[in-house]
Write a structure and sequence with these properties.
The protein is mainly beta and 123 residues long. The chain has no helices and 11 strands.
Length: 123
C-alpha cells in the first residue's frame, strides 16, 4: 500500500518558519521524484516545489523561491519542505506526492498524494 503522511503544519505568525515532513511508504522511495503542492481555500491546487530522486535537482514556484527549500533523506523515506519568511499568502493545506515515473525529472505527473497538513500564517 502506497502511503504518504505529511506532518509539521501549524499556525504561525508572518515572518516565522515551519518545516514540513512527508513520510513515504509502499514504494521504493529513493527511486522516485517527489513534489510539494498546496491548496488555499477557494483556490486551485498549485505547485510549490519538486526534487529529483537523488535530491540533486530541485525547482520552485516563483512565489516561494528564496524562502522555501525542498530536501529529502532517502535513508528515512522522508521529503521535507523548509518554509521561511512565511506570509499569510502561504496559508494553505500542503500536500506531498510521488512522481509517477521513477526516472523522470521534472516529474510532470504525480500518482499518489498524502492527506495534507494545514499551514496557517497570520499577519
Amino acid at each position: 500500500q502506497v502511503q504518504l503522511e505529511e506532518s509539521g503544519g501549524g499556525s504561525v505568525q508572518a515572518g516565522e518558519s515551519l518545516r514540513l515532513s512527508c513520510l513515504a511508504s509502499g514504494r521504493t522511495f529513493s527511486r522516485y521524484p517527489m513534489g510539494w503542492f498546496r491548496q488555499a481555500p477557494g483556490k486551485e491546487r498549485e505547485f510549490v516545489a519538486d526534487i529529483s530522486r537523488s535530491g540533486s535537482l530541485t525547482s520552485y514556484a516563483d512565489s516561494v523561491k528564496g524562502r522555501f527549500t525542498i530536501s529529502r533523506d532517502n535513508a528515512k523515506n522522508t521529503v521535507y519542505l523548509q518554509m521561511n519568511s512565511l506570509t499569510p499568502e502561504d496559508t494553505a493545506v500542503y500536500y506531498c506526492a510521488y512522481g509517477s515515473v521513477a526516472w523522470a525529472y521534472p516529474p510532470g505527473k504525480y500518482d499518489y498524494w498524502g492527506q495534507g497538513t494545514q499551514v496557517t500564517v497570520s499577519s
